[in-house]
Amino acid sequence: MKNIIHDSMNENCAVTSHTLADFESELPRWCKGCGDHGVLTGIQRALKKNNIDPENVVSVSGIGCSSRLPHYLRTYGFHGLHGRALPIATGVRLARPESHVLVVMGDGDCFSIGGNHWLHAIRYNINVVALVLDNNIYALTKKQASPTTPDGQLTNTTPRGTYLEPMNPLSVVMGMTNVSFLAQSATWLPNHLDATIEKAWSHHGLSFVRILQRCPVYMPQGFGDGGKNYPVVLLENEQGIPIDQTALLRGPAQPHDHTDIHAAQEVAHTSEPAPMGLIYQNERLPAYEDIRFSRTDKPRDRSDFLRRLDGTLDKFAV
Ligand SMILES: Cc1ncc(C[n+]2csc(CCOP(=O)(O)OP(=O)(O)O)c2C)c(N)n1
Ligand code: SF4
After folding, report:
1. For 303-318, how does the pLDDT look when each residue is reduced to its tens digit (9 = 90+)?
2. Computed from CA positions of residues 279, 123, 114, 316, in that sequence, does the dihedral angle turn out positive or negative?
């Protein structure tokens, strides 16, 4: 699985490194122009950059277009039930604390049917990277209103337009206790998105990232025509998420202290212009497993049990 790359500066010093191909699996079946493609690439780049072995990663999802991602990433994967990605990921992390766990959810998946799990995962602060691909619609089931669908939007469940103000997931997160990492990016800001995933990967604790995602099929007009006309402000901080020139073409930069909880709550409350970048980070909070394993034993060597479990699960592999 590893490709050996020789360092031309020093022939005696062979470094072992991964290529992007090490993280590629099936050819994605998302529509042309779907923002999910860019998120997949961003994850693959972050894994490569951190030289993480694919066999040490477990990607977990619920159900939805975005939740197909584990099929396309060459790591272990668990395509779970609608809304249930976070509790599955919590179980994986507790059973295999040495593994990197990535969670991919849709807006309906996380904020609606998975809402209760979402709140408690934030409170638990389990050490996983949790990405919500928010296209403001239920896409896999062909255009029903989700909690973030804009007011007045025609959908199959609201043929006369939605009646409710959309939920602001950022202010929900900042209203919780024990928040350790909150960031926002968008699929039409590719370099910013890569840098956001990379930053989330380096954080210890629950890294919660909302990614505004283009769905050219069921929400073509979403985010001001696929992000082209969507007002954003780029949060600027030396310790935050780097801002490149292409992102600055979409909106101005604004200084922001992501360690100040009150500043973060204020920024999270703003939906227009949408804040892009690292909204809040608290590096002092222990992750749930740190607390739990300081009071209980880590999982013991259960190799025989796991061998039999693997055999059973393999029967259901697709
Ligand atoms: C318990 C349950 N309820 C409903 C469904 C039907 N269902 C499948 S995917 C989906 C919506 C997915 O939307 P979202 O989470 O926003 O993800 P997207 O497809 O937009 O990426 C629904 C309602 C289901 N599979 N299981
Ligand atoms: S329907 Fe929308 S979200 Fe689903 S794959 Fe197509 S573009 Fe992507």
Report:
1. 777 788 889 989 988 7
2. positive
